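Hey, resending since the last one bounced:
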Amino acid sequence: MRPTTKRRLLTLTLILLVLFGAIGGIFAYRISVINARIQQERVDGMAAYQAGDYDNALGLLSDYVGKHKDDGDALYALAVTRSQVSQPNGHHLTDAISFLNNYLDLRKGDPQGQHKLLELYSRVRWNPEILSLSDEILQRDPNDLPALRAKTAALMACASSIGAQLADAPLETVAALQTYGRELGLAFQLVDDLLGIWGSSKTTGKPVGADLRARKKSLPVVAAMASGTSAGEELRHLYESGDLHADCDDAVVAHAASLVDVAGGRAWVSDEAERRLTAAIGALGAAQLRSAPREALADVARYVTARDR
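The structure tokens again:
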């Protein structure tokens, strides 16, 4: 090969190396810019989510999670955000459920994700899924209150409507009876929480204040602690201190019950039980039932909120 040819080949090779190096550098720069933009979408999306700005969070987190499906925190935030931005026919809820199931594939058994999924199942009234997930949670913690409440409501909804379904009743009747059962189940749990603190041992068969002795965070306790009152704060400290336990003095239990009452926990749960009772009886009006069975079901609902055991 002649010397001039060698020089030309060497020159061409150097030019190509410089050219490919420049192209590679530009490509790497563009990738870094894109990655930086995607990461900024995560930062901005999570900030909007934490601030409750769900409309802005939705677009940012959707773009980010579309490229980073293994980011559990962002996926959970997207699920919650999606559930807060309404779409026709409840599509926002079914989308959020899908995101949460993906999240739980990454973080199996995560209590936060399971409770949020349970809440969404309840909103779309998917009773079989509610029962299945509740059982899964209760296998881990038999005293998990959200799971117990959701399961009771779903069971009552199924029990109240199954006869109508088997009889091929109109869909409006089935839906109304499901609503009746669900509200009745929630009322049942609310009253049960009241009895767990103030129920008589002669009628409940349990020690007075049994839920307080077990330091159960039942709804009256949660409502009291969230009240922002001095009584609610004292109750929180009492729960954390360990002074409440199965063998503690009755005076300690009585004091704890008084704190729940003073902080408004008892009144809130009583009012909520009454609201659920009203909703249950109100649902019967859309069930297209004759007066006798309608009144019988209304009497059952009234018994649930007036029972002492």
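Residues 144-309 form a domain with the Farnesyl Diphosphate Synthase fold (CATH 1.10.600.10).

Sorry for the duplicate.
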